[in-house]
Design a protein that fits this description.
By secondary structure, this protein is of the alpha+beta class. Helix content is 29%, strand content 27%. It has a single domain (11-127), classed as Aminopeptidase (3-Layer(aba) Sandwich). It has a 5-stranded antiparallel sheet, sandwiched between helices.
Length: 128
């Protein structure tokens, strides 16, 4: 991932009177993404990972430390609640395929689902 001294804002929207900021994923986001996973319903975990197992902090940190040639990601955060991430989207490039391919992943915390956050995160991945 590209290291930024100051995270830049890609998109800001109001969801149920809360401002949600979409910005690039940073290594410091690992703990916040892990905490978001703890707030997810079992259904949301299953629909994202196709199993009821939540990723470990180490697995999340791996995604947060991707080199730019390996992938990219974005988070949806609440500026009014520093350190609170409510959505994450990323892709990891496949290393051993003849054609350039990548595996995307998008996850939005239950109480923020169906409000356009996942779509905004997906749009950022498409434009990256």
């Amino acid at each position: 991932m590209t290291r930024l001294s100051q995270p830049w804002v890609v998109h800001q929207a109001t969801v149920d009177t809360q401002v949600v900021t979409v910005r690039p994923l940073q290594p410091a986001d690992a703990d916040s993404i892990f905490a978001m996973h703890e707030r997810l319903s079992p259904e949301s975990v299953y629909y994202r990972y196709l199993q009821y197992r939540r990723p470990t902090l180490a697995e999340i940190a791996t995604v947060c430390h991707l080199a730019p040639e390996r992938g990219a990601g974005f988070v949806a955060a609440l500026p009014a609640e520093p350190g609170t991430v409510v959505g994450v989207a990323y892709y990891v490039r496949e290393a051993y395929t003849a054609e350039p391919t990548a595996e995307p992943g998008i996850l939005v915390e239950d109480r923020f689902q169906a409000q356009g956050i996942g779509r905004r995160l997906w749009q950022q991945l498409q434009h990256h």
